[in-house]
Amino acid sequence: MKKSNLVAVLCTFSAFTLIMPFAANGATEAPKGTDGKTYSMRTTTPLAKSGSVGKGLDKFAELVATKSAGRIKTTTNYSGELGTQREQVEMVHDGSLEVVTTLASGTARYVPQLALFEFPYIYKDEAHLVRVLNALEPEVSRLLAPHNFVAIGGQNMGFRHMLDKKRPIVSVADMKGLKMRGPNPVYVGMFNALGANGTTTDWSEIYGAIQSGVIDGMEASPDMIFSMKFHEVAPYLSKTNHIAACVYYMINKTWLESLPADLRKIVLDSAREAAAYQNDLDNKVQSESLQKMIAGGAKVNEVKDVGEFVKTLETFKASFVKEKGPDWQSLYEKISAVK
């Protein structure tokens, strides 16, 4: 062999032996089954970090980060850190964020009939509500798909009660003339039907609105009220159990579909696991939050007859759905069909 050929062979062999350890260790290759990319999942909720939904969001982000082995980097924001609920929903719609917790109050501007999930006196108890959310998840996602959302992981936020700063509400007559905040037209219509004056105010602005007298009160579950300290400015909590509020993880559809299949499954599975965690937690924290409010000076009372409230709202409910048209009637029938 000529000297020049021998040198070429030796150089080639040396280069090969240098490259092989790196290739064996995967330093120059993406992990098997992945695209080698890192993704961001920026999440937010208009609710407080200390509430069950805020804790559920923490769990969701933690599960995704852990199960993806860092391939999805997660962040969480709470309350009004990123703006009002409407602004947070728009950010997910536009792709500035990937996940927001919302439903009737946030996405009904895209699909108005979703407000029916927070309709007065339609759920038997918390377990019934969760069954409805799970059964209707595909339908909600179908309705929101044209608006770039996927709905996953329905969460119960507890039955809601009236909270105001003027007087206890014992009967429907006590509602008369109160300026009460509701998050959407269903609540406003309900308040008006009960004799109050319904209005909308963003969640992050309620405390100041009550304090300044713009509104007399609002309604929410004990944990939601306690987490935002609304009882400090409106001490009368009357247990009407009128609506059970709920949310899904609303995920940006374009982002979700851009993920590799394995990561997409991790996100969806983690959302459902976090929702189950939140639902279990919420059932425990509602009574705890109520007791904490009582200890902090809130005055809590039962209403004389819940049936009076149910009966008073029957005409409103029937006429409201009928006036809204077939899309509303169709969804209402699907919700009502879940036992």
Features:
339 residues; alpha/beta; D-Maltodextrin-Binding Protein, domain 2; 4-stranded mixed β-sheet; 12 helices; globular
Describe this entry's structure for a reader.
- There is one protein chain.
- The N terminus is likely disordered.
- This protein has a single domain, classed as D-Maltodextrin-Binding Protein, domain 2 (3-Layer(aba) Sandwich).
- With 339 residues, the protein is an alpha/beta fold.
- The strands form 3 sheets. The chain has a 5-stranded mixed β-sheet, sandwiched between helices.
- The protein is built from 12 helices and 11 strands.
- β1, α2 and β2 form a beta-alpha-beta unit.
- α2 packs antiparallel against α10 and α6 packs across α11.
- Helices cover 49% and strands 18% of the residues.
Q: How much of the polypeptide forms β-strand, as a percent range? A: 15-25%
Helical content class: 40-55%
Please indicate the count of domains.
1
**Strand order, largest beta sheet:** 2-1-3-10-4
Major sheet size, sense and barrel closure: 5 strands, mixed
Q: Any low-confidence stretches, pLDDT <50, length ≥5?
A: 1-33
Span of the ends, CA to CA = 87 Å
* C-alpha Rg (nearest Å): 26 Å
CATH architecture: 3-Layer(aba) Sandwich
For the record, the CATH class is Alpha Beta
Query: How many beta-strand segments?
Result: 11
Mean pLDDT: 90
